[in-house]
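Pilot study result, target chain (127 residues):
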Amino acid sequence: MDNTNTMKILFLDDQLNRWDAFREKNPTADATWASSYYDAVTLIEKNDYDLIYLDHDLGTKATGHTFAEYMVEKNIPCRFVVCHSMNHVGRVDMTSLLHGSGFNVLNCPYAWEYTTNQVVSQMDDSY
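Predicted structure:
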């Protein structure tokens, strides 16, 4: 597996504490935080990402699932997607949608607590 320290990462989650936990585990990662669907769309339209972390519940009507639908509709290029939401139903729905559309996706509710190397190493075992 490639060194994940060279991966460009988008972390979509409305909870600052999860972003902080992710940064603590991945201090050298080239990662950007998006706290809303709209922030994530703006970032994805301007940048390519190797790894995208998705939370489901973002505190608005536009959810992580809304962003997953956007990724599918626009055929966003991305090597890995991690659905890390604590909302089990939302996380499973996002995982199924993305996997069914050909994305390499992992259903991992506490993904922010691991290094990106640990998360990406699980990708081949997720399906």
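One observation from the pilot: The radius of gyration is 13 Å. A full batch analysis is planned for the follow-on phase.
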